[in-house]
Write a structure and sequence with these properties.
34% helix, 24% strand, Rossmann fold, single chain, 14 helices, five-stranded parallel beta sheet, eight-stranded mixed beta sheet, binds cytidine-5'-monophosphate
């Protein structure tokens, strides 16, 4: 997949820079044209001569080439690239990328690039765990950048932990895989619901649930990164998405979510119902704050909310694919199967609150997919983004058959 691809390899000042000789060699061997850009500190760890010899192109490091006075155009480089790899990415460069601090040639080129960006962090375990690093990496993800997670093991400091740059072979594989599946949803439109809904009790109180929206947002980003045009209808969540290709509609209540989904339904090829919709809303919403009274407990009367998945199932065309979720605490398989049929879904993604590291708020999930063809696909515990990839792979197969 890398044959003829223009790759910018951005190297920053970390000890793992020594592995970039192998990384450059592997990219060139796979047929890519490689332009290396180094930050000034990276040159302390590996000689530019090594990389220019392996890539067959002079390494760029400064805005101006000292001996010729030639200006290196970050804009041209950004447009030339089919992919950017930042490896190793230090905490400093990640912070600059996340916040647009364009004080060197590499970050300036990053800001100009339209191509997919792969970031392979490498640093000491405590730097990796620092809230600023964690937040900056999350920001990069929200820009649509692909994080190639560091592995755990012995670090240059001799401490043991997470922070080793992924091996060059696996970095090349991640990029190769990206190009292999990259645009398989091109031209498709996917509607996704995410997060909880919030149902008012009075002007200051509400009924809701613990859904963070993370799974729905991961699905939206996965679909968009594969070329789909995504409409993301989300309940109130603290997540951001600046990802290109995602049109976000914010709603609060189940009724608002239902209306937004039904309006968008005809224009979409697939619908993924990932939101944790409140099954009931308050019928007698108080227009003033309910006061505490000593011996009287207020009565909150509930009315059923619309089942959005069911409404979609009843109104969908034959060429539309629908996917539901089932979060269960018990009797998982039977309950999920029932929902698959009742809601007329093509497949359902089941997870159980009995599984550790699955479900609400956490960054990982473990799911089983049950299809209307009678298949059961069991997954391992993975990051929500990796789970999203597995789900979208199944969705892609359904869409390909329509
Ligand atoms: O019935 P239950 O809520 O467990 O079903 C879960 C599936 O149905 C999820 O896909 C969820 O997004 C969807 N759902 C919905 N509208 C509701 C309730 C659930 O779309 N009111």
């Amino acid at each position: 997949m890398l044959k003829g691809k223009h790759i910018i390899l951005g190297i920053t000042g970390g000890i793992a820079a020594y592995k970039c000789a192998t990384l450059t060699r592997l990219l060139v061997k796979a047929g890519a044209e490689v332009q290396v850009i180094m930050t000034p500190n990276a040159k302390q760890f590996i000689q530019p001569l090594t990389l220019s010899t392996l890539s067959g192109k002079p390494v760029i490091s400064e805005f101006f080439t000292a001996n010729t006075g030639q200006w290196n155009s970050h804009v041209d480089l950004g447009l030339w690239a089919d992919a950017l790899i930042i490896a190793p990415a230090t905490a400093s460069t990640i912070g600059k990328m996340a916040n647009g601090v364009a004080d060197n040639m590499l970050v300036t080129t990053y800001l100009s690039a339209k191509a997919p960006v792969f970031v392979a962090p490498a640093m000491d375990l405590d730097m990796m765990r620092h809230p600023s690093t964690v937040r900056n990496i999350e920001l990069l993800r929200s820009y649509g950048n692909h994080i190639i997670e560091p592995t755990a093991g012995e670090l240059a400091s001799h401490l043991i932990g997470k922070g080793r740059m992924e091996e060059p072979e696996n970095i090349v594989k991640a990029i190769d895989d990206y190009f292999a599946i990259s645009q398989d949803l091109q031209g498709k439109r996917v509607l996704i619901t995410a997060g909880p809904t919030v149902e008012k009790v009075d002007p200051v109180r509400y009924i809701s649930n613990f859904s963070s929206g993370k799974m729905g947002f991961a699905l939206a980003e996965e679909c968009a990164s594969r070329g789909a045009q995504v409409t993301l209808v989300t309940g109130p969540v603290s997540l951001k998405t600046e990802y290109p290709g995602i049109d976000r509609i914010d709603v609060t209540t189940a009724i608002e979510m239902h209306d937004a989904v039904m309006k968008a339904l005809p224009d979409n090829d697939a619908v993924i119902l990932c939101a944790a919709v409140a099954d009931y809303r308050v019928e007698n919403v108080a227009d003033k704050k309910i006061k505490r009274e000593k011996d009287v407990a207020p009565v909150i009367r509930l009315a059923p909310n619309p089942d959005i998945a069911r409404a979609v199932g009843q109104n969908k065309r034959d060429d539309q694919v629908t996917v539901g979720f089932a979060l269960e605490t018990d009797n998982e398989q039977v309950n999920a199967q029932g929902k698959l049929e009742r809601k007329n879904l093509n497949f359902i993604v089941m997870n159980s609150l009995r599984d550790k590291n699955a479900g609400f708020q956490v960054d990982t999930n473990k799911v089983t997919i049950i299809t209307d063809k009678g298949e059961t696909i069991e997954g391992d515990c993975k990051s929500k983004r990796d789970v999203a990839r597995d789900i979208v792979d199944v969705l892609h197969n359904y869409l390909a058959q329509k």
